[in-house]
Amino acid sequence: MGIDLKTTVACVAVLVVPLAILLFAQWPLRDWVQAYSRQTNDAAQVLFALYVAVAVTVTSVSNAHLASAHQPATSSNASPLWKRYAMLMCTAPWALLIVWTSSAQVWESVVHFERFSETGNPGFFVIKFAGLLLALLALGHCTFSALRKSQATGNE
């Protein structure tokens, strides 16, 4: 049972409107109300971190990422399976390094509900978790992509 791409996009797309509202509200709150602009900024940072963590992987999976238009020209010798394994070999070390080095810090941050240092507002732990989530999603995407292609073609 796989993750449905359309459902994931719909869930993440829900974050776009509140993010835009929060980003827009910062300046009127700072200039006219002269209050709550920092809290608005902190909330926007949390939503943006979650949005980016998932959106980068979703755009890569659906070939909607800007970099997907700059793929090297295919030759007769280059199989899609070879490209999938190359993506795995390039992405997996980076993702594993991020997971290995950040897991303990993210865990501590989540356990203590780490706050933003300038405002003291809770939620900074979500930003750290989003970085780890991005690495895990990238690792999962390249791994499952390589495995799915090798099973479909029968190659090992």
Describe the structure.
The chain has 156 residues and is mainly alpha-helical. The protein is built from five helices and no strands. It has helices at 5-13, 16-33, 37-61, 80-111, 124-153. Helix 4 packs antiparallel against helix 5. The chain is flat and about 55 Å long. Residues 74-79 have low confidence and may be disordered.
Q: What's a concise summary of this model?
A:
This protein is mainly alpha-helical and 156 residues long.
Keywords:
156 residues, mainly alpha, 5 helices
What is the fold's blueprint, element by element?
Layout: H1 5-13, H2 16-33, H3 37-61, H4 80-111, H5 124-153
Helix pairs in contact: 1-3, 2-3, 3-5, 4-5
Number of helices: 5
**Helix residue percentage:** over 70%
Mean pLDDT: 78
Helix/strand/pairing category: mainly alpha
Q: Termini separation (Å)?
A: 23 Å
How would a crystallographer describe the biggest sheet?
none
Shape: flat
Q: What's the alpha carbon Rg, rounded to whole Å? A: 19 Å
Order of helices and strands, N to C? HHHHH
Strand tally: 0
Q: Which runs of at least 5 residues are low in confidence (pLDDT < 50)?
A: 74-79
Which band does the percent of strand residues land in? under 5%
